Amino acid sequence: MFGWSSFSVFCVFSLLLCDGAAANTEIINFKSDLQHSVDLPQAVVGNWATLNSSHNERRWAVQPAPLGTPSHEVCETDVKSTSASPVACPHELWITLDLDDANWRDYGAFTLRLSWAASTPADFLIELYSPETVSTFLSNNQQQQRQITLPEGAPSFREGPPLITRTKYARIRVVDAGVLTPQIQLDRPKPRSSDRVVEPIHFILILEQLYWGFLPASQLPTICFLIPVLLAAAMAIPRLLAYLDPLVLQAREDLANIASLEKEE
User: Fold this and answer.
1) In Å, what is the CA distance from 155 to each residue of 47, 126, 152, 196, 251?
2) Do 163 and 36 contact (CB within 8 A), yes or no?
């Protein structure tokens, strides 16, 4: 019989349909549980960008924290302002996830996906906050004396929040993960990681519902396309193997005959 089984050929054919990835991705799946709403300060939260069903994808660029900084320590140090305006932390971004959107009421699970180019090494930390935890964070943060990085042109947070909400807040922090080249010149001091000029990290953030609790909505068309293709391949492979088997057996017999004639000579 032919060397490869139908299952092996089917697996190889499936792998050929997969494309290579040229980007890094951080994914966090979560459930949209009902929780108590809190009257958050609109001077801060009202300027955060919002992701909803009609605007579920946006691009940003954030300056990463210096190389070697622990992700959980980024923008955690209390910053005292010496002027009338607070000091902003450029290494983090806050996003409002509007899960109360009418188009998403029937979905109980969501995924937040962050992608950035593999050519820009960085470590991202994504954390989800409820309204109550955001309120606690802001109240503990020098009574809101430190201002958080606000994207330009961000939609305003809706006024008069209900007593019960599914809205969540995403806090995104980024750290430089570049690899320093060894210092081989003995007459020069070793450069410090803080001396490196690091460009802002550009990334894409996508919020979408999960079908059946695990399948992202953007992947559904791909799955619908692959299912009939794979079924057709599974049906065609046995017939292809049945056609090739006699040819392979005949080729083996011919090779065996040639080998036996060479031995007799």
Assistant:
1) 7, 21, 9, 34, 70
2) yes
SS3 68: coil
Give the span between the Cα atoms of 151 and 49, in whole angstroms: 7
CB crowding 196-234: b at 16 or more within 10 Å, else e: eebeebebebbbbbbeeeeebbeeeeeeeeeeeeeeebe
37 dihedral zone (left: phi>0; alpha: psi -120 to 50; beta): beta
Please give the structure tokens belonging to residue 3: 């060397």
Q: Are 28 and 112 in contact (CB under 8 A)?
A: yes
> Going residue by residue through the chain (265 aa), what tens digit of pLDDT does each one get?
444 454 554 454 454 445 444 669 999 999 998 998 888 888 888 889 999 999 999 999 999 999 999 999 999 865 443 333 334 689 999 999 999 989 998 899 999 999 999 889 999 999 999 999 999 888 876 454 445 554 554 444 445 555 889 999 999 999 999 875 555 444 555 555 555 678 899 999 999 999 888 888 888 778 778 888 888 888 888 888 888 888 888 888 888 888 887 777 6
What is the pTM (predicted TM-score) of this model? 0.68
Q: Count other Cβ atoms within 10 Å, centred on residue 65.
A: 23
Tracing tokens 């188009």 back to the chain, one arrives at 103
